[in-house]
Here is the input.
Amino acid sequence: MTTTPTTTAPVSLGAGRAWGRALVYGLGVSGRAAAELLLARGAAVVGVDGRPAGELQLAELADDPRFELRGEADALPPVDGVVLSPGVPLDRPLVAAARAAGLPVISEVELAFPLLDGPVVGITGSNGKSTTTAMTGAMLRAAGREVEVCGNIGDAVSGRVDGPPGRVFVIELSSFQLEAMATFRPAAGAWLNLSPDHLDRYPDLEAYAAAKESLFVRQEAGDVAVLNADDPRVARAVTRGRRRFFSRLARVADGCFLDGETVVEIAPEGGEQPLFERHDLPLAGAHNLENAMAAALLARALGAEPEHLRAALASFEGLPHRMQRVAEVAGVTFYDDSKATNFAATAKSLLDLADGSVHLVLGGLAKQGDDPTEVVELAAVKAKRLYLVGAAEESFARAFAGAAPLERCGTLERAVAAAFAAAVAGDVVLLSPACASFDQFRSYAHRGDVFQQLVAKTAAASRAGAANGAAAKGHEAPGGGEA
Here is the structure.
């Protein structure tokens, strides 16, 4: 579909932007939300996507005369600015042409930011963003705030602009979403951790880190930056805001730390107070404790009290595919941690599990530059057996040789069957692949769903076997013959 959109006069989009016609590059969830916001504000929109038009889900956009669809290979049309979806790298030819023409090039989150009527909390990191974002929203709701949880976790920020004033916008931000910002300034922001990821898009780890660190670049005194004291690169992040740290491993000067089983907040001006107990958190994994600590500091920055934090944690069920307890079958507990798409995430999931108890399912599409050393060392202590699947099977077999007995299973179905056959009561079967899913699955969620379906079949077969065994015993005579 190619039409010529109605010419419109420039309309105010906040932050000094007056655009009559904008180009939205990438028409997935965030791109469509950006286009809809622009149209609602009175601007015309040129949409660009690398996919064929028949594969796009344009819905009402397709029927709006102010919307025009073009291809990536088309020349840059006359527009006042460009809005990028997160999946669109900054080096695409159309983007380069827009910059050469002096046009503003901004992200979808940046488009929405000046139009948000309420404080903004931003959360980034290589792992744990979604859980921390959801926890922060829950803590602020427990404190009586009206909250919009959005960004990379689900709905685009542009789709949450309209609504009552004073809402708190808790936004999950990938490094891609932090690119092309011009005014974005969170009242409170958190950088959770850093591990090698997306090195197909960034030239090196430091470039990836710099994208994460840009979350804080426009903060001022009175804003809060929440940082992981246990991650050296994160801990030295630069901000003009107040730096508050969280740590599982050591005391901090300003922030919170783990003292035995208690998470304690400390502030130079206010002494110490307990925030919550470790057992208040119903989720497994050291990483989830860190997520809760970061969320607590963010919520505290917006006025939540310790009782609000505890109330939110008590009812927090976690998110799918993130160390999600699926079932217990014949005393064997199954966990779905399909969201662990790099080694750092898998390492955090292993930390709190009992030594020698884990049947660990690993593999998929390995990520460039990811170092397995920490997981190899943990597997030697935590794992009873390893089950390798997917495209990384051979390279993982070399990397994990000698860490624990291993099986090359190829598929998730064979891995689940082999793990359950080898496990005994008290053991754990953990899908924590340390890999992307795209070799065999549509997404990490699809992979996790398939794992859960396999576990359900395993449970059903186990119950049927137990029932058949009980029935057979019921027909035996006391002396062992048939009744």
User: Anything to note?
Assistant: The mean pLDDT is 93.
